[in-house]
Amino acid sequence: MERDARFLVDLLRDRHPVSRELGQHYLFDTSVLNAAIELAGDIDGQHVLEVGCGPGSLTHHLLLAGARVSAIEIDEGSLQHMKLHFEDEIASGQLNLITGDALTVQWPQDIDALVANIPYQISSPLLERVQREIRTIPAVLLVQEEFAERMAMSIPPLDRGPLGLSLWLDFDIEIGRRVPPSCFSPQPRVHSRLIRLEPIDRLDIIGSDVDRRMFRQVTSQCFKDRRRKLRNLIKRPPRRLSRISGWHRERWQAAISSIQQHPLFEERPDMLEPEDWVEICTLISEYNFE
């Protein structure tokens, strides 16, 4: 029988129960799968990392596009299904199955792109790992619609926050097709979005050497209460400040005291542009504590 997305999903669901704990919602809509491949661009001959291959519906389309795929999967039932129905691709080396948790298992070192329908509950920690390890390669992800809007900060100031600001450092973000629940089995309760992350080194463009950890800690601290002014939010040191080399509570308090009259500190967090946050972190970082 000819292999297609719906066939692969039905086969897996007939033999293995869906795990709610793993957030399994299998994409079977061919038009959405084709849209994901189109958004990824020319992947013929490229090594693509897929997170959570499930029944292999996206894997199938990646292989059709000529990609060499490394697919991470934690679910044993899905792995058995993949080994049975992608036997030829595995034997030829076109498909490599990696068993384990995508947040902790070692990723291949030579990947050219990330394309995945990721479980919603690991979206944030997965993006953190992407930024740590593979921020120089493009990614196409299918994520919850609200999450995609926050990634892209598409409706400022409402969607402006730590997630989008952190991603802004490393990526231009393009929001793609809206995907209704009916495209999945079982259906999620929310709409989803395709989204593309195109690498860009924003700090290099700006000419800044601000510590990325400082940037993320400052923005996370300040967006805990977006209604208050920055001067009130930033008085207290970030919780993980000591993880940044050379920084501690006393240095932070002295730095903030020296720059708290700056006009940016009179603004509320969601009214600041991304470049403003770089300036704020630069002002803090440049303080010499003796």
Describe this structure in words.
- This protein is α/β, with parallel strands linked by helices.
- It folds into two domains: 5-200, Vaccinia Virus protein VP39 (Rossmann fold, 3-Layer(aba) Sandwich), CATH 3.40.50; 212-285, no CATH class.
- Helix content is 40%, strand content 17%.
- It is built from 13 helices and nine strands.
- The strands form two sheets. It has a seven-stranded mixed sheet with strand order 4-3-2-5-6-9-7. A two-stranded antiparallel sheet has the order 1-8.
- α1 runs antiparallel to α3, α1 (5-15) packs across α4 and α8 (162-168) packs antiparallel against α10 (212-222).
- It is elongated and about 70 Å long.
- The mean pLDDT is 94.
Brief descriptors of the model:
two-stranded antiparallel sheet; 7-stranded mixed sheet; 290 residues; alpha/beta; Rossmann fold; 2 domains
Quick synopsis:
This protein is of the alpha/beta class and 290 residues long. It has helices at residues 5-15, 30-40, 57-64, 76-85, 87-92, 123-133, 145-152, 162-168, 202-206, 212-222, 230-233, 249-259, 274-285; strands at residues 26-27, 47-51, 68-73, 95-99, 113-117, 139-144, 171-179, 184-185, 192-199.
Helix-strand layout with pairing:
Blueprint: H1 5-15, E1 26-27, H2 30-40, E2 47-51, H3 57-64, E3 68-73, H4 76-85, H5 87-92, E4 95-99, E5 113-117, H6 123-133, E6 139-144, H7 145-152, H8 162-168, E7 171-179, E8 184-185, E9 192-199, H9 202-206, H10 212-222, H11 230-233, H12 249-259, H13 274-285
Parallel strand pairs: 2-3, 2-5, 3-4, 5-6
Antiparallel strand pairs: 1-8, 6-9, 7-9
Helix pairs in contact: 1-3, 1-4, 8-10, 10-13
